[in-house]
Structure formats: C-alpha cells, structure tokens
Amino acid sequence: MIKQTVNGGLLVVVEGLDGAGKSSVLQQLAGYCEEKGFSVILSREPTDGRWGKQIRASAMTGRLPLEAEFELFIRDREDHVENLILPALRKGSVVILDRYYFSSAAYQGARGLDPDEILARNEVFAPAPDLVLLLDCAAEVSLERIRKRGSVPDEFERLEALEAVRRIFLAIKRPFIQVVDAGKSAVEVAGDCQSHLDRVLRAKL
Question: Cα separation of 102 and 99, whole Å?
C-alpha cells in the first residue's frame, strides 16, 4: 500500500520531563498517523548511534563535563538530522521525535549553559519542527512516576535539576510550541496532543 505523504514532510517533537508521559503520546500519535495512511518515522534523541550511546551511558555512570556533554549532543543531532530527519522529511513522511534540541537547551541550560545560545547553535543546522508538544508536569510528579514504573532516577533526574529544567522548557518561546498539561489523565493528554497534531496536519495537506 502506498503511504500518504505530507508536502515537505511534517516534523513533530514531544518534549518534557521524564515521567511526563512522552512514550505513551509518541506511540499514540504514531499509531494515529499510520491509521490515516501516512508514512511515519518514529525516532528519539539521544539516538542509538555512536554519540548517542555515549550520552546514554553517562546517564547511568555519571554525567560528563558540561561542554563535553553538550558537544556529544551536537554531534549526535547533526548525524540524526543528516541521516534520518532530513531524508524522511524530503520523502514527505511524518517524523515524530522523542526529544530534540529543546531538551538540550533545558538540560544543559540547567547545568549552566545559556539556553538561548544552545537554541541558536542548533537552529543553524537542525530543521525547525512544525509542532512541539511540551508535556508539562511538576518535577515531583515526574520523579514519582519514574519510581512507580520501577525505574531508578538517573543522573539527569534529580529534583532540583528537574525543577530548573522545567523552568527553562516553559521559558522557550516559539510559535510551534504547544504546552500540554501532563497532569491530566493519559486519555485527556492524548486527546489534547492529537488535536494539536490534526491542526498542523490540515495546514500542510
């Protein structure tokens, strides 16, 4: 079956603290687009590539020095953009990402880098999304949900740091960012996200 394409492709990003419900939303949005017949690419950052694996390892063994961590994210994202994101968009696919450069601004910004400078550096090479769904919840809620699912908070998931990350996320102003209340039920959150996606899809078809 020939998959339906979108003019210029569609880049959708799901952002937020761990425990905000990103995984559920990603799967639901991907399934929704596939049911409508669209070609869908689901991916994440850090990736499973050379640089992304180093970042993921550091979450469990101890975070890298700030500049080294940031440069790994840049290398990982450059590779991601060149080898997956741009080719998929050129083919007219709906690309749905679990995190993008807004997470870099929030997480490395919380460690001391300038979030605006992080955004500016990434926006030189990384295509702007059509839609960012920022799933917003309190840091305490994030940690409680992480523990409830049986996970141990890693080096990126400390209460004080998460509070700073959340503040930065909410301070980022771009016209394509939609803040979604992730404190609602999973059904309500999914419905809100799907409504935002529908609006953007209609505009591009």
Answer: 7
- DSSP label of 38: B
Residue 158 is predicted with a pLDDT of: 80
At 21 the three-state DSSP class reads coil
Q: What pLDDT is attached to residue 85?
A: 98
Interval 92-139: pLDDT, tens: 999 999 999 999 999 999 999 999 999 999 999 999 999 999 999 999
Query: Which two structure tokens, joined as six digits, stand for 106?
Result: 């929030």
CA atoms of 100 and 163, how far apart (whole Å): 19
Q: Is 190 helix (H, G, I), strand (E, B) or coil?
A: helix
> H-helix or E-strand containing 180?
strand 177-181
3-state secondary structure of 87: helix
| Cα–Cα distance for residue pair 158/139, rounded to 1 Å | 9
- For residue 48, the tally of other CB atoms under 10 A from its CB is 10
